[in-house]
Amino acid sequence: MNVLDVDCDAFALRAYDAAFALALAIEEVGMNTSFGFQKMNDSFNSTDLDTFKVSQHGLKLARVLSTTRFKGIAGDFSLVDGQLQSSTFKIVNVNVDRVRTIAFWTPESGMVKTLNSTNTSTLSISKKCNFGPIIWSGDSRYVPRGWEIPIKGKKLRIGVPVKVGYTEFVNVNKNHGTNTTKVIGFSIDVFTAVLSVLPYVFPYEFIPFENPDGTSAGSYDKLVYQVYLEKFDAVVGDITIRANRSLFVDFTMPYTESGVVMAVPIRDTRSKNAWVFLKPLTWDLWLTTLCFFIFIGFVIWVLEHRINEDFRGPPSHQISTSFWFSFSTMVFSHSNTPSPLPREKVVSNLARFLMIIWVFVVLVLTQSYTANLASLLTVQQLQPTVTEVKDLVKSGVHVGYMNGSFVYELLKEIGFEESKLKAVNSMEESDEALSKGSGKGGIAAVIDETPNMKLFVAKYCSKYTMIGPIFKTGGFGFVFPKRSPLLCDVSQAVLNVTEGKKIIEFENKWFGQGSHCEDNPNLSNNSLGLESFWGLFLIAGVASIIALVIFAVSFLYNNWHILNHAEYSRASKWRRVRAMFEIFNDKDLSSHNFKSSQQRDGSAGVRDEVKASPYSNWPGSPFSYEGQQSPYTTTSHASTETTPDTT
């Protein structure tokens, strides 16, 4: 019988060649030698294997066997270092009943496309070789992940929910004429995109979870439990990832936002009280602005007191003028041109520099205040009627939830009575119930998952707003059986889809461009705070301090000789300081402002307002002088008669 006629594999063929090679070696060794066997030496610790007899010519037989060469039925037989050398292999691709030759492998050339190839270099399998594609089971060109794909007419049974409302996620359409069912929706598009990312394909079919009359067969919990009962291989839809559900099934990564929120009506709360003019600014900004008005008025008074007649006179006049000058910057700018309004002008360069900065600060503040006040009085201010779910529990109002949703159990856990919970089935029904209100047989709020509520608020932007999240959830995910070999690959594919542009395209397709209403800015505090203007106040404060420092240094430098005069060495420090303050209270007749005024009045040669030393009239003071000029009086003043300042 020909051995090739026997149905055997490559290992059997190699075993036949090995037996043939052993026979050839025995023939060569046994021509001149008789074979005999002898028992090995016995020992105290010998085993059963030691009782076997061994050939006396084993080494010679092994040497002859290593040099045996012949062409066997499994290829060329050759041993090198006791290892059988591989011969040429044909690489074939077997797919169901089709067999395709991919390439050949030889020890000399490695992978080659044909046996007569002239390519003598060894090619690595990891390199890109143009040997044609490999088709795997399921007509996929990607390497399977090691699990059996149903390819013999078996399809994965994908359960989908039957919904009345929020059909943008899952919508089951039946054509009774053709007796076909079409399932569409956002969740279905995401699932289809996920399958396209997988490195393999598998057949599936959508099976609605419904009664014979076409209505829903139960809640989402019951639908998920069908996977545990092996009635469905998976469930696709707006299924929320929940801890109690994960006890029976596994979820993929979420493909939507997580959380439970509530949608409540909004109302116009435009301020109609007498104190609305205070709302554009926060209290800290009002207080800071007031302090800076007082501070700037004080700095201007210091800089202008000695050289400007407008900032002299009785103390009450000086204080009122300083405050008036500072606060008047809110309504008009300062200039030297005539005006029907009383204006004080500044003549000091330091004061002018400071006023440039302060007027800019006031300009920004007043413009911002005006714009915000106009917004408060004219723009519709929409505020939610309820901001906390606890308020709903305390007030005992009716609250809506989506029929069949797990939210019903959550609401009972936080204290809602069953009689206060009303099921709604669609966005239109929710809108109708919210419009009635709890007191008229409706509801005060509807509570559901974030994706549903965002879709609801997007449709009724002008009537409702979202509050929350009030609960945390895992978002929407796809359901698979426990330890499903598909779970890991599908979860990774979900991440690929949600991180790309496809998820945005699906949202625009099913929810529209305006699916996510912009957060209403009126729901937050409209008052302008100090954090928006602290930079301006910082600049004004630094400029004021710099102006004061420059003025103080200049004043002390010009009058330092008073304190260092030999006649004043016996005076106390307090009296010296008092003398400096009295000098500060005097007019600075050397100022160009007073010189110009005297020239206009024709009294340039008469110094009627030169004041004597502040110490000259002190009884018993060592600084009193009779018939002579004050030591700190300048030479230009020596020839004039000093009189007290009456201004």
Give me the CATH fold name of the domain at 142-258 and 477-499.
D-Maltodextrin-Binding Protein, domain 2
Overall mean pLDDT score? 77
SS-derived structural category: alpha+beta
Number of helices: 16
Q: Which residue ranges are poorly predicted, with pLDDT under 50 across at least 5 consecutive positions?
A: 117-128, 333-342, 519-524, 603-647
**Terminal-residue CA separation:** 143 Å
Helix fraction, binned, reads 25-40%
Evaluate the radius of gyration: 50 Å
Beta-strand share of residues = 15-25%
Q: Under the CATH scheme, which architecture of the domain at 142-258 and 477-499 would be assigned? A: 3-Layer(aba) Sandwich
Would you state the CATH class of the domain at 142-258 and 477-499?
Answer: Alpha Beta
CATH superfamily of the domain at 142-258 and 477-499: Periplasmic binding protein-like II
Shape: elongated
Oligomer status: single chain
The total strand number stands at 22
How would a textbook summarize the main sheet? 6 strands, mixed
